[in-house]
């Protein structure tokens, strides 16, 4: 990829910045060839790969090197785009929001600094992948389980910082963060929570501090670079059991939510309950052309045929219980009785007991896998995907309202419907998976139009997205418009106060520093 | 590492049966198979713990290709991994045995091909950055996998 310079930086100034970075991290860890720029591009972008170009990447190996790079970035007015491992697939991968930003790749910092089986937490650097942490736990034979997202290739910290989700009792990953070390945009180091005290023993245990606690300020944020953080883990259960129901009809999701949510609030169910629509099962069985050979959306009659053929319901609900066997049995009876009021069919039951092998394909058991990315093969060719992910109250009424609206919009754009609701307590996250062939420009244009329509219509109805791809960070921020976008104005006031040169992740989540505020609303390097 | 392992799980079952493939159970798989639901698809293979990344200068020549493959490529290319599953489908379609889904079983890969796929990506595999795998590490992995002439 050709070089795109950061705004207002001359080629000479850019070279001077890269030389300075090389002085801090070593010349081998400053990467600025055309091939490097290709590797720091959004390979799932619903548009050209060159739309969100990085100018270079720099990879520090320690917190001191991060501090040095950040100070040099200020000196050279060169914006940085920090990534932990850069595997934020579907949301922009490792590509920056503002063209010409230098990717600050923290992938070399991949040490598990602490693993405490007694109080069930770890302290990790940003480059630690879900696989790295899992392998470390196995080697240490620590009685701890993780919560993993669909893509275990990514960073444990990066995923939590971007508000990622998993499907165990620890599935709301940002809530597991406790006590962070952060390089501020000035290069100064701060520790949040109890870490603000020298030598504090409860750094990664007490989720608050004395006075305001800034931990969450650094999630989905451009206020600093997180160099390490504590993360709570789940004590390994003695047993686990899973109850699986195939739920026949689309509208049944209403009673399913109204059955699961109260059980979750009462503590009978403690995991994040994942409810995918039928296509979530089919995408792993082969390619789309094997099931429907036309470019148009799979029609309803064919959907019904496929459900029959593969013995699937429109939805599948799996409730997994963790812990003591007698307690799991008792809880299972309560849950089965609640479902029985709506559905005669008994669930499938499967037990796991300590010492038995874990199903590596089952994310509710905390084993990392990248198999979810196999859905790329469903489309065939150079495929990509995006998630449209609004958060709704966990009641049947709200879920059905959201479902009907998004389903109609998706159908109006002639796109296959593939959604899930994950019940996390009082709210459910509705991920609508949009898959596309990146070699079909018309299909990409349609996807972009669809995404914008979904953002607008959903916001008008009173639901907001929890996360968004680079291309919609500004639009989604606009939907958080209460009182003339008071939240954004607050964020940008803070941003300008602590990052006057605007060098950390300009535009992240629609928060723009004064230095680059004219970039707001621009769509990368192409219209 | 070079032990031939058949990967049946998570590969489209219909495709494997169409191709007339039968599972050859290794002792490991038989142990796991007893945990699977009766009549359902075969259970996935057990999780393989990846090798630790070799210590030392990541830019030095002569790195340990086998350990690097396990650590850097093992996310997707060990038994049951995303890459293994998709390559298995391709290999079966091409008339080869499913065990060729594991890159370590392949005799036809060349070092140059391995490097090109790693840096350019292929189908579901994204291009790897030089932080993911350095040029020296990739040389070692390519030499390790590149048994083809």
Could you explain how this protein is built, in words?
The complex is a heterodimer of chains A (527) and B (149). Chain A is α+β, with helices and mostly antiparallel strands and 527 residues long. In chain A, the strands form 5 sheets. In chain A, strands 13, 16, 17, 18, 19 and 20 form a 6-stranded antiparallel sheet that branches. Chain A has helices at 11-25, 34-39, 63-76, 130-140, 156-161, 173-176, 253-265, 279-282, 288-291, 300-309, 325-340, 375-379, 396-412, 441-460, 473-479, 482-498, and strands at 30-31, 56-58, 80-83, 102-105, 112-116, 121-124, 144-145, 177-183, 189-191, 225-232, 234-235, 239-247, 273-276, 315-323, 348-353, 383-388, 390-393, 419-423, 427-437, 464-465. In chain A, helix 13 (396-412) runs antiparallel to helix 14 (441-460). Chain A has 16 helices and 20 strands. Chain B is mainly α and 149 residues long. The longest helix of chain B is centred in the middle third of the chain and has 13 residues, at 65-77. Chain B starts with 12 loop residues before the first helix and ends with a helix. Residues 1-39 of chain B have low confidence and may be disordered. Chains A and B meet through helix 2 and helix 4 of A and helix 1, helix 3 and helix 4 of B.
**Biggest beta sheet summary of chain B:** none
Instruction: Assign an overall shape of chain B.
Output: globular
Can you tell me the residue ranges of chain B where pLDDT is under 50 for at least 5 consecutive residues? 1-39
Number of helices of chain A: 16
* Largest sheet data of chain A: 6 strands, antiparallel
Question: What count of helical segments of chain B does DSSP give?
Answer: 6
> How much is the radius of gyration of chain A in Å?
23 Å
- Please provide the ordered H/E string of secondary-structure elements of chain B: HHHHHH
Separation of termini of chain B?
21 Å
Assembly status: heterodimer
Structural class by SSE content of chain B: mainly alpha
Helix content of chain B: 25-40%
Poorly predicted segments of chain A:
none
Radius of gyration of chain B: 16 Å
Mean pLDDT of chain B: 79
Number of strands of chain A: 20
Terminal-residue CA separation of chain A: 18 Å
Percent range for β-strand residues of chain A = 15-25%
Task: Characterize the overall form of chain A.
Answer: globular
